[in-house]
Design goal:
Length: about 325
Amino acid sequence: ADAVQDHRVKEYAGAISALPSNPKLRLRCYQGTWVRERWVPGIMAIQRSFTPRRSGDVVLASPPKCGTTWLKALAFATMARDAYPPAHPDHPLLRLNPHDCVPFMEDLFAAGWGSKLEALPSPRLMNTHIQYSALPACISTNPGLKIVYICRDPKDMLVSMWHFIRKTSQPDLSFSDFFEGACDGVCVSGPIWDHVLGYWNASKASPETVLFLRYEEMLRDPVANARKLARFLGHPFSAAEEDSGAVTNVVKLCSFEKLKNLDVNRAALSSFPFRSDVFFRRGEAGDWANHMTPEMARRLDAIVQEKLRGSGLSF
Ligand code: A3P
């Protein structure tokens, strides 16, 4: 895999080195979005060679730190529930991190492993942080492909991202520096407002192919959102399943407390170059208040509000 990745990186190296960079956060600005440098070859490869399956694909899309792990678990548990009912004692989510159940497209394609998607059962579940406008048309305008998007109050997203970056790569990153950059649009998958707006507009234009979810709404009513997700994915909970508590069991299996405390998600060793427990921190709304002054919060809210003006979306 390393050899293939080296090959890819070399293949795209010229194009990548010409992109604006933010060395501190190891980001490159590609087609208007600040993305992690190591994802750029993957994004380019997806744009060139992703081949949708006729029988249907499901792309879980999000800006990082907005509930991707949760959405992966919920979508996987929902779609796999005929083979693995949520109370199954050997459920894959009990022994695999949700990121190992639903592949991350940028990493997969950067490693030259896009063809591994062929091995997935239909509909294939996969995830991306690519902004809507940079998706290849075979994903963004494909009536046979469904996109489920999740986002979150940008203030909590930034706090979560800052913790994640500190734990995984830069222990000395100061919150105020990080915050300043993000207000200028520079954070992973930023500008945040562009990311959210792209999928919001797509969900308004095509609600049958793009489902727009919000982390805070899911916290408030996870069962209703799990039902909505299952309906959207074409695998609604039947009356018999409702009676047997299947929806509640899916929600319980995918809950923060349940996943966080599983051995596989507490492991020092994982398929990532860092501990898998970094994906499970607090799992709450409103932690921004512990890191931002009221002035910082007002400033970011005002920027976001201005950027989203007229869209019908607000945070
Ligand atoms: P916090 O850092 O605010 O706690 P992502 O999965 O996109 O990386 O997002 C990570 C955020 O989702 C983290 O937020 C993490 O704690 C939270 N999270 C992870 N699993 C969750 C779950 N099952 N339910 C609710 N929140 C979850």
